[in-house]
Design brief:
Length: 338
């Protein structure tokens, strides 16, 4: 059925060392949903890990949802092709970029940590325009009914209200965000920053007037297929120690229950320190603490392939302090269930 499927080659700078690194995982699928990898078309399954250079494909009755390692969440509509070749993310520094080139039915996106680190680090690219993503939840329709027909309709963008940022420990409230329509040089042509705004390339200024209730109804299925927001659990250590407090040990049970309740779930364990050591020491200590919790979760039955560890050092303090100051609230572990 998919013998006519064409691989879209992107002219990108390739990094062989990262080519097979895990960049996300599939959470749910229905109908015809596939991953093209090394010229082989694989049936997409819940829990399946994704690599750079993979291409996601949905057929006429297919849908597919993904959570990436930066906690971006995608929901592909039917008849969509999406290449993942342009994904890069460093789990220690949160530096990265993601260029999305959807072809066909379209995709709903809730942006993640890539967007939070640098404006326009995530871009959605079409032949007729480029969108710079600045932290938001939105749907793009690629403007073509099927990937087997040439593009004849300009793309459409719908901006939705943001969700609370559950991974932001100091300020989880939704942030004002925007999408910039960029020209060929990357300069702003138009900024869309009002929830329920609809932008269509076919109109003079791009804007359309549509009632919010009609928009929610039109895109309910696509938005509803997005993976649920991640959960965030905090564990604490003593100073210069990898020993959990008694209260944090009890929290491990909640983490395991949450993990077991989610389709295709995975865990990210992130270590943090205070500012009492050097940058290099704190990076090393934060990773050691994260690895200890990873090993603990594995000993309690979690598949090693489903739990990652990263160290953030002193980059994300809960409490701001001068350099060199000991602060117990900053010596912690985040366990993210997604």
């Amino acid at each position: 059925m998919f013998a006519r499927f064409v691989t879209f080659t992107l002219l990108l700078c390739c990094f062989p060392a990262l080519a097979c690194a895990e960049i996300g995982s599939i959470k749910r699928t229905v109908g015809q949903a596939f991953v093209e990898r090394e010229n082989k078309l694989l049936t997409a399954q819940s829990g399946m890990y994704l690599e750079r250079r993979d291409i996601l494909v949905t057929g006429p009755n297919g849908r597919l949802s993904v959570t990436f390692i930066d906690n971006s969440r995608f929901s592909l509509r039917p008849n969509t092709i999406l290449s993942l070749a342009a994904f890069q993310f460093n789990e220690t520094t949160h530096e990265g970029s993601f260029v999305v080139d959807p072809v066909g039915g379209g995709v709903a996106i809730t942006s993640g940590q890539i967007v939070g680190n640098r404006p326009d680090a995530m871009r959605v690219r079409f032949p007729t325009m480029v969108l710079g993503i600045r932290g938001t939840r939105f749907v793009v329709k690629a403007g073509v009914e099927t990937y087997l027909t040439p593009e004849t309709v300009p793309p459409t963008l719908v901006l939705f209200p943001d969700e609370p940022d559950v991974l932001n420990e100091t300020d989880p409230q939704p942030k004002s965000s925007a999408i910039a329509v960029l020209d060929d040089r990357g300069d702003e042509r138009l900024v869309i920053d009002t929830p329920y705004s609809v932008f269509a390339g076919a109109t003079a200024d791009g804007s359309l007037s549509v009632a919010p209730a009609d928009i929610e109804r039109s895109y309910a299925l696509t938005l509803g297929f997005l993976p649920p927001p991640p959960s965030n659990y905090i564990l604490y250590f003593g100073y210069d120690s990898t020993q959990l407090t008694a209260e944090s040990e009890a929290n491990i049970i909640r983490i395991l229950a949450d993990f077991g309740s989610r389709a295709g779930a995975d865990l990210l364990v992130v270590g943090h320190t205070d500012r009492s050591g050097t940058d290099a020491y704190n990076d090393r200590l934060s990773l050691e603490r994260a690895l200890q919790i990873r090993n603990l979760l594995i000993s309690l039955g979690v598949d090693p392939a489903r739990v990652r560890a990263a160290g953030r050092g002193e980059r994300e303090p809960l409490v701001s302090t001068p350099d060199g100051i000991k602060e117990g609230r900053n010596r912690r572990i985040q366990v993210i269930v997604r």
